[in-house]
Amino acid sequence: MESTKKNRFSNWIFNSFSVTAEGLALYRIFAALFLLLFLLPATQIYSFLGTLPADFFNPPPGPMGLFQEFPSEMVFFAMHYLLITSLISLLVGFKTKFSSIVAGVLFLSLKGFFYSVGKINHDLLIAVVPLVMAFSGWGKSLSVDSLMKSKSHTVREVQNWPLVLLALMLGFMMFTAGFPKILGGWLDVGTQATYGHYFKQFFLNGRQDLLASHALAIENKIAWELLDYGTVVFETGFLLAIMHPKSTRVFVCIAVIFHFSTMVLLNIAFLPNFLAYAAFLNWTSIHQKTEQIFSSERSAPVVSIFLFFGVILAIVFIANHIGVPDLNSDLRTSEFYLLLTALSIALYYLGSQIYQSSKGLIED
Amino acid sequence: MQPKTIKRIFLFFIIYLPIQYALVGVIGLNGSEPWPAFVFPGFKSVFATEDNVEIDEARFFAITDNDQQKRTEIAPSHLFEGLPASQLQGFLRSNFNKQNEFSDEAKQWFRDQLERLYPGQSFSSLNIEWGVVTYRQEGNSVSLINRETTETFTISLDTE
Q1: Fewer CB within 10 A of the terminal residue: chain B, N end or C end?
Q2: pTM here?
């Protein structure tokens, strides 16, 4: 009995996700570009924080307590450029493990200073992804590191357990979003919490873009209550879903749909989470398929990733010029199109799972 | 890394994650949430009652430095321009939820911001009014039912 439990535990850690050096490398390139293009801190905040008196420095409990005040604007910019350097290093796979850790620590430090104004934005996954994936060996292929080592010394062994660890952290964090809602009364049928948050965002924070104004027409309390229950079930259920790779991926897809709905109703995108969600795509298969499509051209998968972001940037550029969608809140055009792309991928995955399951049932 | 070490890392996190969550809850009762912490926002509050929506609000008023003591309302987003909108409410709660004594440097900073917004005018103090605002939605419009001030704080802008 004891050994069965131990085996299950080992099996979960070591056999949940199957990865290859090429697949992980492709995710590394994707993650580095995603961070560089869309998740770098906005530099405007540096001049604001750099001039704030020490009276407003309220570090959250933790390592930020070692500081007495905000650093100067110059220090912020130095950290910013160091972060860009580490991400470029991660992108090309130079000293990959080291640059992953440096990028993670720099994100933690910069964000730590931002949150010393008294509000935490819960985007820890930006730092967690490079820190955890540093141990996966995501620099063992398609990288400067792999080119620098002679063929005889190249060890291409990669680790899949960091993905399971990432799933554990993600599942637990989702649980921490759902559990307080139960305590706070979200399941009370007499009040509609989602409606209250929607109302606050719409009328007070001016988040009235996309489909937000259409939701005003929803007067049916049962509809709002279903959203309350759906949110709680999804967020707390994530912790159970991480036990199996398939259910993890299904819940990641539901998370994408959830965030997309939140974006169209509340105009909040929560983009940093998508960096972690993308880790659970089947990168090995993406690598193989892109190679097949482009007649076994070795660079094809990497070119495809660059092409993907190039297309997104071109769409965002054109969309910004013609004003589609017309955004007046703090939601960015890039966030809209990235979430729309993620939604298509999530729906495709869920659709293919449903198709495969139904095919299996018919054959049985 | 040895499989045994990896298993220990997992065991560590399986134990650490709930413990740090409990700590986040305990620390969060009296202060800010720790950073870094493996938590997502709970959005625990239910603003909606049976018919209305109640929301906390902070209003800032600058008081002119003359006999008339004229009050000018300033949107916090203008006073603290440069701070991301997502952090504004938390910033206000952390820094202006009690009668704080601000340093001369901070008072000068406030005066600089007021000079930026109202060039040439002189202000003696800032009033911060915390309150609860009750709204009711009727179709596509919203009406303010009630505004109740719960606490008022004053920041003198006089330096020593």
Answers
A1: C
A2: 0.94
